[in-house]
Amino acid sequence: MITLQGLWLNQKGHTLYLTSTTVEQLKKWFDDGNITADIWKRDKEEGYQRAPDTKRFKEIANYLEGNLQIEQTLLPNSLILNIRDTGCVDFEPLEEYKGVKTIEVGKILIHDEALPFSEVDGQHRIGGLIQAYKEQKGKQGGDFEQIKSYPVPLTIIEGLDRPSEAIQFVVINNKQKKVKPDLVLQILYKRYRDKGEQLDFFLKGKTWRLWAVEICGQLNLNPDSPWCDKIAAPSDKRKGRLISEQNFVNSLETVYSKIDRDTVRTYLPQYWRAISNVWQECVGDNAVKYSLQKSNGTSVFHWIFPFVYFKSVSLGSAKLKELINTLKPLRKKYGPSFWQRGGEAKKYTSKGAQRELVDNMIAAVSFYHGKEIRLEKLPKGLEGTKEEKTWAKAANLIPLRLYQLFKQDKVNGVNEGATGAYILYSFTKQQFYVGRSHKADLRARLQNHLQNKEDGFHIFNHRLCTEPKEAHDLECALYHLLPKHLLMNKEHPRR
Q1: Mean pLDDT confidence for 17-45
Q2: DSSP letter at 84?
Q3: 386-486 fold
Q4: What is the pTM of this model?
């Protein structure tokens, strides 16, 4: 049994004990196996903490021993431990203490069956305190006496189950000192993947990241995937792996903004198999010699994935063979030498440069002979005018990486009663069509195109406008910007 003195608290039905211990007592608990941390491992995915960093232990030990030349070596933050079972702790309040109903002072009696404590917060502080104890013990001086009796604030929670304990870890570390984002996502995925409200609280609208973690894990574990054991998950060593889970997840934002999670789950693995077929020299055992599966290459290929998928499914299906056929034209200009370490791809590491590369790669699989879209220039005399701003807005609508699949659910997502301009693209005709709503009927105009099977449009983009005149000007700018051989419009938009 462990006996401590302290406070009993009740927070919204949860029992907490505020107390303290010494470094010497803390070390004994640790050595006896009575403090454990739930470490995330590949074979223990219910764990929620990273493996401890021994460098942090040393930093804390140096701080406590005064080696960092800091006058006040304080560690005022409380360690937080949890007892997962209930009914294993007795509390004997002091009779003479008269406090509020939710707080009492007394003796805390922790029975053996309550152990081990689950460490919720303070893993590195515990390691640092123990290391300082060991270092000073060999010297047996006054410093050792100070270290072993050094009081450590301690909060003990009673009765949290493992998932609740994990969420407390996220809240504490995400609001006070940051936990690595990839580990936060692993915790939230295990606990709240089917609870949108809770996910939104932690991810602030970016719940797609949870599904990105899922697909990342699938690719990393699938022996048929070029990503098998190539992604460094939390607590993994980076050696031999190509990209961190965090960077891989971040690169999928451009995918989940266009494609629903079930489609991503089905087709992204096939997409990477297609890539490995077209660029077989750059994956597998040779991958480390190329940047195709490093952060910049992964980001670029994920950026073009929606377009490749849209084209493949629009022209038949998005099975492996069709994905390979869609990607093949890219190899001529962006072959192995392009992705070789130190090759041309190294110029495309910034977001802006990657955007340029993505547009060029899409052009290579969109237009005859892989020619890029050469937009017409602004007529002279319009610099600095309202028309120049309209042309800039129009130019931002044209890049095909921005388009959505031209399907009923996407059209229904356009604001009802909205005014705006739109641009459609046909993979079979390799041409654009520009248009606008005459009044507040943008959705109706798009639905008319959708129902007219002769049009045969596959993807689209649009921009909402505040009034019909703005939509008209934007349509005109689109018409003049695009080369005429790429336009399906038969006549100039009327004024």
Answers
A1: 86
A2: -
A3: GIY-YIG endonuclease (3.40.1440)
A4: 0.67
